Amino acid sequence: MHIHKFEQFWIKLSFVLIAFFIVTVVYGFVAMDLKVIGDHATIDPQNLADTKFGNPGVREVTRNGQTEYEVYVQTIQFAFNPGTAQPIVVPANTRVTFYITSPDVLHGFDVAGTNLNTMSIPGQVAKFTTIFPEVREYGIVCNEYCGPAHHVMEGKIKVVPKSEFDKSNLVE
Amino acid sequence: MPEEKSNPTNNNESEKSWEERNPDIVREITIDEYQPYGTLTLTLIYFAIVALMWVFMYFVEFAGNAPSIID
What we know:
- The structure holds 2 protein chains of 2 kinds.
- Chain A is about 15% helix and about 35% strand.
- By secondary structure, chain A is of the alpha+beta class.
- In chain A, β3 (about 65-75) and β4 (about 80) form a beta hairpin.
- Chain B has one domain (about 1-60).
- In chain B, about 55% of the residues lie in helices and about 0% in strands.
């Protein structure tokens, strides 16, 4: 079959473009160290009370000699606990690890305007670590349809300066 | 086709090639002499737009959207 040379050229160009997409994605995950949510753990969604999710909130931990924070969040119809009734308060420029799960149905945990975004699946624990670089408030929205009041399911993360972080609200 | 409708019984006419039915064609060229530089230019512009928008979406809108997951 005879293919016109211009056509040969732009068919080759299409393959170059696909190769370029693949190279940029590989570069992102290898050289720029981008991360996505992976498998962390499974959990019995009926018995969250026996786990750290039974007393959700911000915990202080020491890892590698550094003070870090762990945030356990339950996503329920139709609130983040904590997050909705009271904001999740964390210090800036500190490692914060979120553990998120759901006792009822599928939810989303999307920190609006950032790359922090995970599904919250009954029976699965989503885990991610981040550092909030600036003092400000972030909105959390549920981005997986979870029922009739899904559209009002939202919460807040309040990032405060390290020096103003009130440790009296931490949970044990 | 309109040509066939206007001459439904003329078999001789429909057996002729398109060129034979259009004798005012001045010059016939082979496929490689046909060089659509306009189409080539549009294709290159299109590829450039796709590549630039990809770079913007991936490196600026996605990777630059801190805070990100670090672990």
